[in-house]
Amino acid sequence: MIQVADLKKSYRAKMEILKGVQFTLEPNNIYCLLGRNGAGKTTLMKILSGILAYDSGTIIVKDNKKLNELVHYVSEKPNFLDFLSGFDNLDFIQKIYHLNMSKDELERFCEEQGIQSFIHELVINYSHGMKHQLALAVAFLIKPKVLLLDEPLVSLDPINIAETYKKLVSYARRGNIVLLSTHMIPIAHKLADEILLLKNGKIHQVANQYSESELEHYVLNQI
Ligand SMILES: Nc1ncnc2c1ncn2[C@@H]1O[C@H](COP(=O)(O)OP(=O)(O)OP(=O)(O)O)[C@@H](O)[C@H]1O
């Protein structure tokens, strides 16, 4: 469980983006982070993943575990070693994480992830959607307890979106936390157990108990 309280962040003296953010994340749940452009969603995710420092507030992790050891952040602009294949990128990452996977095991993993058709091509030649699929595969390879995804579905085709829905739900239900930012209300409605609405530097946390049109109405009235 992760409890965030009174979290504040400014980039410049007069530009406070997070003004005392408060929310709780529990294992087995998917959270969708919604908010207008520039609301601070990426800022919040970067803070949770330890990439960015915050000014004040507390982030408490159950059992006093270190958050940055539990979290994996998938950026909206994933970066890889472009002149290696996706497969060699995955192999490099599994070695860094000491997963001790053989090439055959990694091939099987790529098949399970549905990325075998392009995984041996150089990343420099990948489309946006292929890069995002590879970034999601990295997340499922290293299996973080807390998976943060910054607009992960924007460049995926409908079949890959449906597959990713299934993967994220089953991943969360195995005792993990999934937090993803999205601008798409149907995605939030379909996936989220709870909605985190970021507005004016504060979070409103609500259960996803709405129909899709009610959620749209709620979000459009709140943000
Ligand atoms: N490194 C930085 N230095 C200064 N200002 C920044 C920096 N990064 C982000 N900001 C500002 O902080 C605000 C929040 O940005 P952030 O990227 O967190 O928003 P967001 O909710 O993810 O937006 P979007 O939905 O458009 O992706 C914006 O006003 C942005 O210009």
TrEMBL record:
- Write down what this protein is called: ABC transporter domain-containing protein
Please verify whether the record's keywords include Ligase: no
What the entry lists under Pfam families is as follows: ABC_tran
Top-level taxon: Bacteria
Does the keyword section mention Zinc-finger?
A: no
Write out the GO MF terms.
ATP binding; ATP hydrolysis activity
Tell me which positions the record assigns to the signal sequence: none
Q: Name the UniProt key words of this record, in alphabetical order.
A: ATP-binding, Nucleotide-binding, Transport
